[in-house]
Amino acid sequence: MMRKLQLCFFFTAILALSVSCVTTSGPETQDKNGKPQWITDRPGGSLYYIGIGGSNTGNQADDKELARSRALAELSSEIYASIESSLDIQATDSSESGESYLVEQNIRQNVEQDLEAVETVETWYSQGDGYWYYMRLSKMEWEAIQEKRAQDMIKRIDEMFSDIFRDSLSELKTIDRAYTEYRENYTGRKVKMDLFGKTGSIDTLLLMRAEELLKEIELPLPSVPDELTQMEQITLTGKVLCASGRNPGAFSLDVSTDKGDNLGVIVLNPDGSFEWLYTVQDLPGETSYTYRLISPLKDTELAASVNYALPAVSKSSLVSALMVQMQTEGDNSSGLYERSFEILDSLTPFTLTDKESDKKIRMSFSFHEAPPNDFGLVISYGRCFITVITAEGENVIWQSDEEKSGGLTEDQARGKVTDKLLEKMEEDQNLKAYLREVTF
Fold this sequence. Notes:
Elements lengths: L1 H24 L11 H4 L7 E8 L4 H25 L14 H15 L4 E9 L3 E9 H22 L7 H17 L7 E4 L2 E4 H15 E2 L8 E3 L3 E7 L1 E2 L9 E6 L4 E6 L5 E7 L5 E9 L6 H7 L5 E9 L2 E6 L7 H12 L3 E3 L6 E10 L8 E13 L2 E7 L3 E5 L2 H18 L1 H9 L3
Parallel strand pairs: 7-14, 15-16, 15-17
Antiparallel strand pairs: 1-3, 2-3, 4-5, 6-9, 8-12, 10-11, 10-13, 13-14, 17-18, 18-19, 18-20
Helix pairs in contact: 3-4, 5-6, 6-7
């Protein structure tokens, strides 16, 4: 009797187990159209980040890749959504360089790089509904991955600062690389380490050190005389110093005026010294010359944060007009002088005058005629020359290409050639550049 009861309990248990297996994998996991329930009824739970994606283009191979990609993207978005509320992100932060964009992008890249931790729970395909992916990532696994990434990053940044820097510029460039490293790994949580003798969030420590280094730099006043003359050549010299006493390094200085004109860039020697030749081109009046340190930082976020700390110094000078007498060679009855004066005056940075001056600029013309022809026309060829005249002598700074034209008389033909030469001169950008570089 006992044996019969034991057999009865055994078969009852087998039957109960069979019924429970059918319930788990049976019709209850699908909707009435045969789709898996996870497509229409998103799975819940607090242990996993979930991504579900589908595609129905009609191409099964393409749909499979698209569905997988969308599932991963949704999984990444769920991770971002879970930490978004804890981020200190302003409501206006919608640009592609903003913190929210950076965090979201970094999360997606991390998920793509750690696919071995992402579990494909199930896939499903039908001709009518396309391809579907159900993927998930353990929240504990994600935290473990981020912790490992943080420790690896701390090790890399620590190695960057293991050497002694020869100057401030080399340290700033290392800070720039370390800040970029931090931002490329930032997924919403601050990572702390010991750096520069302090303990704190990596980005804060790097930012504070960059500010400190920039504020240590001392620029000399621009070595321009109190009074200048247009087209005068001056040498700007000086030495940039660091309050800490070490060399600043081969920084670059931007030289500009208060009128917004950029005069050029000075590259420092490693010890901070420099020498730069400049030809004064400013219009007459008081001009303020400014040295401004050019940021060596390539990371736009870091550069923007410390831009205010970039040192700049200015000095004012009084610029006097350079008076240059305009001369022409040839017959001026046709208004050649007035036309030439007007054109040259528009091209030169200095002031032209018809009064006697020890500095002169001369426009001259050279002509020759072609042999007589059967048509009775005179064909003339001509060139134009511009010469700078000073007490030291004469210097031809520009000559035109040869032009030709024809007329009934030699004067008529030469007049047409002159018109062409003046027109070409007015349009010649090389001549304009020469006139703005000439020194007297």
